Amino acid sequence: MPKIEDVARHAGVSVTTVSRVLNDRGYISQKTRDNVHRAMKELNYQPNEMARALFRRKSNMIGLIVPDVSHPFFSELTYHLEYVADQYGYKLMLCNSNRDVAKEKQYIDMLKKNQADGIIMGSSVLEIDHYLNLELPIVSLDRQLSKDIPVVTSDNVLGGQLAAQHLLDKGCKHPAYVYRGLGGPHHEAMLASGRVQGYGAVLTAADVQSLHVQLTITEPQEQIVNGELVQFLQEHPEVDGIFASSDVIAAEIIQACYQCGKSVPDDLCVIGYDDVKMASLITPRLSTIRQPIREMATHMIELLVQHMAGEIVPHETMLPVYLIERETT
């Protein structure tokens, strides 16, 4: 494998000159630049990007830490983040934390050692002080880490209100809210908890009580008909409407209804949250609360780029959500 010394010798210049061409530092004539690039091409020389990053103190790399990249919401979010980051000249390093404290810490340490220019935190299970001591620009998704770390979120309270009102408008008298524990410490600080707050406020104003069901955390490969949901539906035949905290859970509920012989929406209305692609592909097509995933990704990258440039950015960016009515209600 050719080295930088080989390129210098082939181009008839010093190693320092090759380094300056690679890192775009100092004045170099166009003729010399062309000679160096020609030598690199003829020798099939591949620059050491890590060494260049150390020299420039800039890697053009953004770390993205998510709790579960197999989850449709985080999968779609990652897709849009990568696209927007690329438009700004940055590449993403994807870190799947599984909401594990030790694993998240290892990823953060790795990103620092590899000279990441900034981090997008989609999974935050460590103590807040740990993030404050990173000395790296950070943008958080859906969790208030500190007043110094910008956060991008959607209007979760409004989302819960829209879901509750929609169930009431459909004539539901015995609704239920179904969610899955987030796992890991500090999940109570997630702004997504606003969904149940908005949902509860609308039902309380209408003098309607709701059951709340917390499902256990499952592995991705275990996303089959959920026995917990089947048991719940069998024990509570009066439930006529369910607000699920995600589209994935809503899809599980539809499967459980099929197992129990319940028709959706004739016997039970179901509304999800996120509006990922699967929401319009399952049968019946899912009514849901749409989070603007692409817009959230765009704002996160733009805020991080501004943050990395030392600009002052807003502490919280909240985007609107919308009711999408389909066949399950």
Automatic annotation (TrEMBL):
Q: Where is the HTH lacI-type domain?
A: 2-56
Would I find Repressor among this entry's keywords?
yes
Which PROSITE patterns does the protein's record reference? HTH_LACI_1 (PS00356), HTH_LACI_2 (PS50932)
Q: Which SMART domains match?
A: HTH_LACI
Domain of life of the native organism: Bacteria
Q: Which UniProt keywords apply?
A: DNA-binding, Repressor, Transcription, Transcription regulation
- PANTHER family recorded: LACI-RELATED TRANSCRIPTIONAL REPRESSOR, RIBOSE OPERON REPRESSOR
Q: What is this protein called?
A: LacI family sucrose operon transcriptional repressor
